[in-house]
Amino acid sequence: MGRATILVADDDASIRTVLAQALTRAGYDIRTTGHAGTLWSWVSQGEGDLVVTDVVMPDENAFDLLPRIRQARPDLPVIVMSAQNTFMTAIRASERGAYEYLPKPFDLKELVTIVGRALSRPRGIGVGASNEVEEIPLIGRSPAMQDIYRAMARLMSTDLTVMISGESGTGKELVARALHDYGKRRGGPFVAVNMAAIPRDLIESELFGHEKGAFTGAHARSPGRFEQAEGGTLFLDEIGDMPMEAQTRLLRVLQQGEYATVGGKASVRTNVRIIAATNKDLRQSIELGHFREDLFFRLNVVPLRLPPLRERSEDVPDLVRHFLARATREGLAPKQIDAVAMDRLIRYRWPGNVRELENLVRRLTALYAQETITAPVIEAELDLASAPPPVVAAARETSSNEALPLSQAVDRYLKQYFASLGGALPPPGLYHRLLREVEAPLLTAVLTATNGNQIRAAELLGLNRNTLRKKIRDLDLPIIRQSSSGPGR
């Protein structure tokens, strides 16, 4: 058998030259063109063993050409290159049947490796096309996110179980939803369950449902999340907080494909895709005896690690523009961030990751009247985010035997705060910033007092339960586990 011929298409002559040199050194014959029409002519005449093409060509977009290539020569592998390095580029490449997607710039050694793998793969393996999609669920063009996009694109045509790991606020549920919305099960339901938010003694009922009379208070049959997710995707968030008993039952479901409701006798067959997520080191949990090793291996079929925002700081401007545009669509006044302020956002370490950035942008659009947000405003917001709550700061000035009323503690803090400005005034939005600082310790104290019972906590605070849940999420408050002997039981 002779040497394989690679068809290279890119409207940039210098890129064509570099690719041709690298692939020639690897032992391939090369034909290059700057037009999609010429590429299609070669392919339709049966020439070439593999195609390497840019997406944007002067006469036709490669995504429009790919379906014709697949119809004419379904076994011809196509590698797509693009400088438009978004999640949707990777997804469209996968949907159109591309063998691989490479974001520009890329390593030539990686290209040669992918070419070799594509030429040696079994023939007859294809990827079906699906409907066009418009909204971009994931934002970022950094190398770290490109790796995530490419891995996700490969998963769209599979039902493999995925384990998403990453710090709080990195977007684990967003990735899970994207895997569902653009995958094989997009026509089915997406059901999300936060293991850390459910009382330990109710987790099995929550997951598998219960029969009437199964336990005190079970006045009617209730479907579980597995039943609700039938034919779709079940997202198990914070899987590291699942109790051992529930882990055992989940393992049995994954092994046997069936479960029994709490109080039920008959086995129920299940057809769901499992996506799990955690912000914990599950291997350490295994060593401590808190997580089953066999369950870990069942869930960790495809591991995806989401990078913290500090590892992809170059994505901050794109994220800020995305959140500003979203706020404008929601009816808030248009805002922009000046260059110095944006540089400060890029240099910040973002302990709360993308969620913290999104919340900051929402505050900027809601609380500040000026159209252009400047560096002093950003500095004040970020300093406030890292400062201790005002009551705590004021309490440090008192003796251990002196308990100041809340109003006096805040008054002392504010006097010290204004004195520290040396006669200058703080940036606008002080009222809302201070309320936000009091809100987090207040909610934490009430949740602690009610032993994590969110129904009791919402009642005590005078808030709707859904409002409380949203505040817990937005403020990134730790979940306090409710015990069976806690208040309200």
Automatic annotation (TrEMBL):
Residues modified as 4-aspartylphosphate: 54
Domain Sigma-54 factor interaction span(s) in chain numbering: 138-366
Keywords, sorted A to Z: Activator, ATP-binding, Cytoplasm, DNA-binding, Nitrogen fixation, Nucleotide-binding, Phosphoprotein, Repressor, Transcription, Transcription regulation, Two-component regulatory system
Q: Response regulatory domain: which residues? A: 5-119
**What Pfam family is a match, any one?**
AAA_lid_14
Q: Which domain of life is it from?
A: Bacteria
Query: Source organism lineage?
Result: Bacteria, Pseudomonadati, Pseudomonadota, Alphaproteobacteria, Hyphomicrobiales
- The keyword Nucleotide-binding is assigned to this record: yes
Role: Member of the two-component regulatory system NtrB/NtrC, which controls expression of the nitrogen-regulated (ntr) genes in response to nitrogen limitation. Phosphorylated NtrC binds directly to DNA and stimulates the formation of open promoter-sigma54-RNA polymerase complexes.
Q: Any keyword Nucleotide-binding? A: yes
Q: Where are the transmembrane segments?
A: none
Q: Which organism is it from?
A: Pseudochelatococcus contaminans
GO biological processes: regulation of DNA-templated transcription; regulation of nitrogen utilization
Instruction: Point out the gene that encodes the protein.
Output: ntrC
**PROSITE patterns given for it?**
RESPONSE_REGULATORY, SIGMA54_INTERACT_1, SIGMA54_INTERACT_2, SIGMA54_INTERACT_3, SIGMA54_INTERACT_4
SUPFAM superfamilies per record: CheY-like (SSF52172), Homeodomain-like (SSF46689), P-loop containing nucleoside triphosphate hydrolases (SSF52540)
Name of protein: DNA-binding transcriptional regulator NtrC
One molecular function GO term is: sequence-specific DNA binding
